[in-house]
Amino acid sequence: MVVLVIFAACGTDDDDNAGPSTAADETTAPDETTTTAPTTSTSTTAGGTVESASIRVESPLPNETVTSPLTVTGSSATFEGNVLISVTDSTGAVVYDSFFTSSGANGVWGPFEETIEFDATPGPGTVALWESDAGSDDPAARRNVVEIPVTIG
Question: Measured between alpha carbons, how far is 41 from 36 in angstroms, rounded to an integer?
């Protein structure tokens, strides 16, 4: 009788006992690639700070007129303190694309102040800050994106 109980507890042919599976195993062919969309969940505080889960930007403020050089200030708690930054001008051209290291890292918040220079067409633009998605196979994958609409003067 003990042997029967052990066999009964060891498993059946149904999927509940088949072990872990992932949706990718069932739906993605080995030669398919996927692109990870940026995770953008930003909010603007009463004081104008624009923030995501790991980046807070105090300056520039949304809809502010900016010029080069531009000083971007705030705080972050990104992986290894790395913050990526870009500026897009009114033509849609990325006129600045780089990164800097903040004093905050790995969940511990710390301030940053980064001065950047760019040559841009005046008009509506965007200053974007984000951290790379280390868990993605896509090197361009973005996490915790903060996008600030600005006017480039």
Answer: 15
